[in-house]
Design goal:
By secondary structure, this protein is of the alpha+beta class. Helices cover 53% and strands 8% of the residues. The chain has six helices and four strands. The longest helix has 51 residues. The protein is elongated. It starts with a strand and ends with a helix. Bound molecules: zinc ion. Zinc ion binds next to helix 5.
């Protein structure tokens, strides 16, 4: 199993709040209901399916945003979720949506918002670093060009 951090699409997470909506995302899930990682068990464990061409079994947690792929039929979603994302409150609670208390639901939502904000900030910081790297490269190019023109004189 591999885990990735990919480009953030913030809006899709808000839509994955309920188990039923997450389950709906597993229409083309490669594992059947008899597998340990069946669509219903994946949705129960907080995952939604977000396949790519290279990663047809890629899923993501709606609370911690951890991405996991490389699933095997015997993989247990709650166990995999917690082992790859120990900080995830949803994985720590290990409760299907129907068994959550109102207090737990509020706490999960608070954690989810916190994680989302961290992700957005990390992505913006990354974008900023890319921009400053490009700017530095541009300035270095200008300095080199200036040095070359000085030598010619
Ligand atoms: Zn999680």
């Amino acid at each position: 199993m591999t885990d990735d951090v990919q480009v953030l699409n913030v809006e899709k997470y808000d839509a994955m709040y309920t188990e039923a909506i997450r389950l709906n995302s597993f229409k083309n899930w490669p594992f059947g209901e008899k597998s340990a990682c069946s669509a219903s068990k994946m949705a129960e464990a907080g995952f939604f399916h977000c396949p790519t061409e290279q990663e047809p079994d890629l899923v993501q947690c709606y609370v911690c945003f951890k991405e996991l792929d490389g699933w095997e039929a015997s993989d247990e979603p709650w166990t995999e979720h917690f082992s790859h994302s120990k900080i995830c409150l949803f994985a720590q609670l290990r409760k299907p949506q129907k068994d959550l208390t109102v207090a737990e639901i509020f706490k999960i939502e608070s954690e989810r918002k916190k994680n989302k904000t961290k992700r957005v900030i990390a992505q913006r910081l990354q974008n900023f670093r890319t921009m400053t790297d490009e700017m530095e490269e541009f300035i270095q190019g200008l300095i080199k060009a200036t040095d070359v023109s000085k030598k010619k004189k």
